[in-house]
Design a protein that fits this description.
This protein is of the alpha+beta class and about 170 residues long. It has 6 helices and 6 strands; from the N terminus they run ααββααβαββαβ. The longest helix is centred in the middle third of the chain and has 24 residues.
């Protein structure tokens, strides 16, 4: 085993860069979150890491390489932001609808109603309140058009058998 003098560790830029990138990697990992069906923070984590790399390049005097890295990074982020805005995204919402126990909508009719307004069901749960007066469906619904939620809400508001409903968007 080779013993490295302490002075050599302090002045070795390779070891210093490794330490910086490792530490920044842990910081970047801290901004990554899994939220139900999505993972958020990957671009932020990568941006933090590449910013540290550019900082190291500037710190050791590699100005041309740092400039190229900045241009490539900003170009890549800009192009992918543009692509992201052009791609269709799914709109997710928590959906709850309540009926009187004796006037409950059958689950097949609920699914048909949601399909009619362009929704698909991600999960579905059932609830009967403690007194047995109300039956409730709770689900996560998804669609490509966010306006479908408004249209569904208008339909539910006009139904006499629907005692209460809630459509709450998830995420952003």
């Amino acid at each position: 085993m080779t013993v490295v003098p302490l002075d050599a560790i302090r002045t070795d830029p390779t070891r210093m860069a490794q330490g910086i990138m490792t530490g920044i990697g842990f910081l970047g990992a801290g901004v990554i979150f899994k939220e139900s069906l999505t993972v958020r923070g990957l671009t932020t984590a990568a941006s933090i890491w590449v910013t540290a790399a550019i900082g190291i390049l500037l710190g050791i005097g590699f100005y041309f390489a740092a400039t190229v890295a900045v241009i490539l990074t900003l170009g890549t982020l800009s192009v992918f932001r543009w692509i992201e805005t052009k791609m269709p995204t799914l709109f997710y919402a928590h959906y709850m609808v309540r009926f009187a126990r004796d006037a409950t909508m059958p689950v097949e009719e609920l699914q048909a109603l949601l399909n009619q307004y362009g929704f698909s069901i991600a999960s579905l749960s059932y609830r009967l309140d403690a007194e047995g007066d109300y039956f409730e469906y709770r689900t996560v619904i998804r669609t490509i058009k966010e306006d479908n939620a408004r249209r569904l809400a208008l339909h539910l508001a006009s139904r006499r058998d629907c005692l209460e409903f809630r459509i709450s968007p998830t995420g952003d």
